[in-house]
């Protein structure tokens, strides 16, 4: 009788173990989704995206690009290009990137 109880407990533990496994599986597929959406950045904006990440986070952390409209980014980039000592081409690449992901 005791052995049956032990067996039942074991089965329950195994079942519980299986149902727990399905939770991390879900988070893995969610992670894949975010990776995908990051990878969607078109080739033409990749340089701007990389420059933005390396040049624009030092003083205040990276600002959300969708916090500002495309029009609002223009004067901000004029100020920040000076702050970050960007070349004209770096400024143009970053501007194209932030405007592409700006507030609609
Ligand atoms: C040398 C430091 C420095 C660097 C580098 C820098 N910033 Fe700034 N940034 C500031 C300061 C200081 C402010 C707040 C004063 C202001 O708005 O001019 C600011 C403010 C901002 C704001 C908020 C503006 C607003 O009107 O609310 C944005 C957006 C921004 N920066 C984006 C950028 C981007 C994009 C880059 C890269 C090209 C960058 N920053 C690089 C110092 C910096």
If you had to describe this structure to a student in words, what would you say it looks like?
- With 104 residues, the chain is an all-alpha fold.
- The chain folds into 2 domains: 1-40; 42-104.
- The protein has helices at 2-39, 43-55, 70-83, 88-100.
- The protein is elongated and about 80 Å long.
- It starts with a helix and ends with a helix.
- The mean pLDDT is 82.
- The site of heme C has 15 residues, from α3.
- The site of heme C (HEC) has 15 residues, from α3.
The count of domains is: 2
What portion of the residues fall into strands of 2 or more residues? Answer: under 5%
Biggest sheet, in brief? none
With helices defined by DSSP (H or I, 4 residues minimum), what is the helix count?
4
Task: Tell me which ligands are bound.
Answer: heme C
Name the average pLDDT.
82
What share of residues is helical?
over 70%
Radius of gyration: 25 Å
Q: Which regions have little confidence, pLDDT < 50, spanning 5+ residues? A: none
Helix/strand order: HHHH
| Overall spatial form | elongated
In total, the number of strands is 0
Structural class call reads mainly alpha
């Amino acid at each position: 009788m005791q052995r049956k109880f032990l067996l039942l407990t074991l089965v329950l533990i195994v079942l519980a173990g299986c149902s727990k496994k399905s939770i991390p599986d879900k988070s893995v597929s969610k992670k894949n989704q975010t990776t995908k959406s990051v990878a969607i950045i078109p080739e033409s904006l990749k340089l701007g995206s990389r420059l933005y990440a390396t040049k624009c986070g030092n003083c205040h952390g990276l600002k959300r690009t969708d916090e500002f409209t495309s029009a609002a980014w223009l004067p901000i980039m004029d100020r920040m290009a000076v702050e970050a000592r960007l070349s004209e081409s770096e400024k143009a690449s970053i501007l194209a990137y932030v405007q592409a992901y700006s507030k609609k």
